[in-house]
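Hey, I'm writing a tutorial for new members on how sequence and structure tokens pair up, and I'd like a real worked example in the thread rather than a made-up one. If someone can provide the structure for the chain below, I'll link this post from the tutorial.
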Amino acid sequence: MDKIKLGDTTIEISPIGLGTVKFGRNEGVKYPQGFELPTDEELSELLTLAKSLGINMLDTAPAYGTSEQRLGKLLSDQRESWVIIGKAGEDFEDGKSSYNFTPDHFKRSLERSLKRLNTDYIDVLLIHSDGNDMDILSQETLIKTMHEFKEQGLVKAIGASTKTADGGIKALELMDVAMATYTMDYTEEKTVLDYALANNKGVILKKALSSGHNNNIEDAMRFAFSHKGVNGVIIGTINPAHLRQNIAYIT
């Protein structure tokens, strides 16, 4: 797969990125079927396969259970081969999510993520929205803190994983990247993609396969990349065969 420049950043990503929720969390998730967490050996083999298929983008978050810790262990000798999309704002403990969007929490969260991931930088740090996008993005001190992370070299690019069209556009106005949702069944955030295309901003799609509820993978993938404002799509799988299928539909 040819790499794609993420908006106006210097980061180049594969069109498909590997989501890692299932690396570290199997409770409180919205997938149609339950699953066991994979072993370290299974994850190592999956990452090796992903890399061989041309994937270089990994999506993780503190809210994904032990995903960060496991990636830190598995990627210890190959950090430069991967673009890591990280997040801050949501944590998941004792079976439920909690949210904190204060600058102090973000500083602690980033420090914790760097330690867990065994790295000194994260490629893209996103605000992990709880849905109140505009309220969160109107916090000037939080946005300033995000930019300070970038200035300090702790992250290369900043943005937000949003849940509304207005929030996605606001994230792109203030920062570099938005993680948005855009599927055949949900097009309300198309304006985010339109804005990104017009202003050379980065957009990564989540839930392109409707969290596993869309079985028509070929059409879903084709639709996701039908908009030129899309730089990449995150696919969350721990199944090597599914990963190969997803890649086959865009190559």
